[in-house]
Amino acid sequence: MQLEQKLNEIMISKNLDIRSCTETQLMHGLLQLVKEYEDSLSPTEGHKKLYYLSAEFLIGKLLSTNMINLGIYDEMEKILSANGRSLAQIEQFEPEPSLGNGGLGRLAACFLDSIASLNLPGDGIGINYHYGLFRQRFDNFKQVETPDPWLDYENNWLKSSGRSFNVEFGSFSLDAIMYDLLIPGYKNGICNKLHLFDIKEPAAPPDNGISFDKTDIRHQLTSFLYPDDSDDTGKLLRVYQQYFLVSAAAQLILAELDERGYKPEELSRHVVIHINDTHPSMIIPEMIRLLIKSGLPMHQAIQEVQLSCAYTNHTILAEALEKWPSEYLVQVAPQIVPIIEELNRQTKQKYDDPEVQIIDKTGRIHMANMDIHYGFSVNGVAALHTKILQDSELNSFYKIYPNKFNNKTNGITFRRWLMNCNKPLSNLITQQIGDGWHNDAEQLEELLDISNDNDFLSKLIDVKSQNKLRLSHWLKSSYNIEVDNNAIFDIQIKRLHQYKRQQMNALYAIWKYKQIKSGMLPARPIVMIFGAKAAPAYTLAKDTIHLLLCLQNLINNDESAAQWLKLVMIENYNVTAAEKLIPACDISEQISLASKEASGTGNMKFMANGAITLGTMDGANVEIAELAGQENIYIFGRSSSEVISLYEHNNYRSCDYWQDDEILDIIDFIISPEMLRVGDPSSLTRLYKDFLTKDYFMALLDLKDYIRVKEKCLNDYEDRNLWSHKMLANIARSGFFSSDRTIREYERDIWKLRARD
Ligand SMILES: *Cc1c(COP(=O)(O)O)cnc(C)c1O
Predict the structure, then answer these.
(1) For the structural domain made of 41-61+96-410+743-751, what CATH number should be given?
(2) Given ligand 1 and candidates 495, 593, 623, which is best to mutate, with the most ligand atoms within 8 Å of its CB?
(3) Ligand 1 binding pocket, CB closer than 6 Å
(4) pLDDT at residue 320 in the model
(5) Helix (H, G, I), strand (E, B) or coil at 439
(6) Catalytic residues
(7) Domain ranges, ordered by start, for the chain
(8) In CATH, which superfamily holds the domain spanning 414-737?
(9) pTM recorded for the entire structure
């Protein structure tokens, strides 16, 4: 057995024994083995190469997914078990790289897996944040942020590439050191790369939470990932990070173009640059600048860049569309300012509409506007989202460039989100339909042939119970919370944002608690699980976390209620936690205010794992409803067009809901004596007042309908046979949401990497 021999050699070289070393030592040994294995793979070849630029790649742990892709997972599991070791156990000691905020970064990671698995020549380019996104702790029922030093300098997935590029800022320059992380395709013998740029002398982690000297760019540039869109203080640092990323990327792309034997003027024939949201948008002026420097005339440089760059829009929330003051760029990267001004002059000459200008009257640079004018493709991330972009949000652009717009509904890699995280379900499926679904998820539809096979349906329920048991052990050991495995597991895990409406779910918990206290008992216990990080400066989001933690304390310690309702807010929600939670879920909470969630990908992970969606007609929920069928999803709330019209006419008044006694009763509970005994009065009162006077994301608008439909969902759960049919329909129809399908569409409509092969 070659694999076993190889592992033995590695362990012996470290003076360790497989049977007796610690889990961490064994994990390091396996990591080294996988890295060596990956070195023997070939890079993808092709005349045209994709560079996927993203400020975030939320890759998750890599040991087991890499082994799955290399096709050595099962064998390795056997070898370890023959030596008295458990792979699942060892994996717990692998740190999770903290290189993304949430959905956007996770999407980029799923895309890299699919690009390699489809044998497409495409590398990712990002930043090696040392302390990543903050780590979340709860203290006194509040979120506390600490650095997440995920990077083990001795043992990690990064390889040094031997390459570096000098990045010039306004008053100094820095070397961008390039590290590579290998991305193996699924059992196809090929390997792509994720290039992560770093500075030479990164600072040590701060000792006071996550505050550090944001002006010390030389040492802090790659310290932290910008925690979402609500923290103002680090804006200039963020611009430094972005320019660092794109300048190094542009230099790498041109160097590789040259190495492949092509000239700069052939850029667009041989390169596609994908701009994942507006964070890497400065690649446009930077690449134009470098092409001019290499001798191209301005108009040709602009044309080559325009034909190379494609942009994905991820949100319609106005506050998330980046607009940088020109002064920032003058300070950070003065050399690209004249180019942006020239691009602005050219568009201004063609179009009067102030909506489509790159630089506005106040001198702010609209990054998305630059991407749309000077890229060849603009895509939204779900059918509804793309339609909203075309019809309202970016309508002025759609009128100019109808052909640039296209939809690419997001996806997830089933290798991680089903095969790896839910082995009991994967094995059950494979026994039934074979393993073709591993790289062709739409084969899951074959399960529909047995939708009346009661034996299979009861096995589906058994598998879910098994996963719930596993989760309940984890909740007991990590949080000392005991949950009844026979309970319904209702889960909402995602970033904390008002538009995602965790606050509405909290209001449901209050309503249910009061019901139980008044003697209206549910058919069986309910466990409500939350996981969410709030951006450090986002006050109302933090208040919502506080509300949830206070409710958790109050409800779980009220014995008469706690046997029927438990609330658990898990700490530091990340990919690792998601992989534990999703397989055990019965009800997937996807309750954003319609029109606000561009796509969502959590919803897809839950669907594939046999959870039933309780959601609004928003983002990809719309497509989930179409695929699974109306009878296999629980939809509530106002439609996106109703919501858009409410905003347009300024027609939503949360005070209108004061007349409703039931709603008022729920809201009042937030500042009731029992809550104030547990929580911080100023935080709870702020949230209470927001509900009554503002409620910008309209939780009260949909609250009653939410309660009604959630109750129906809980009741339907009692018909176990009916519910198992719903589970099966969801799993069987989830294949559309494979990121392999998404990437095939990017390739077919946008990148065309294989068009001339
Ligand atoms: C999938 C995922 C997300 C995205 O979740 P949404 O519900 O789509 O917002 C965020 N964070 C992590 C860790 C994920 O795995």
Answers:
(1) 3.40.50.2000
(2) 495
(3) 102-103, 106, 494-495, 574-575, 578, 600-602, 605
(4) 76
(5) coil
(6) 314, 494-495, 500, 601, 605
(7) 1-40+74-87, 41-61+96-410+743-751, 414-737
(8) Glycogen Phosphorylase B; (3.40.50.2000)
(9) 0.98
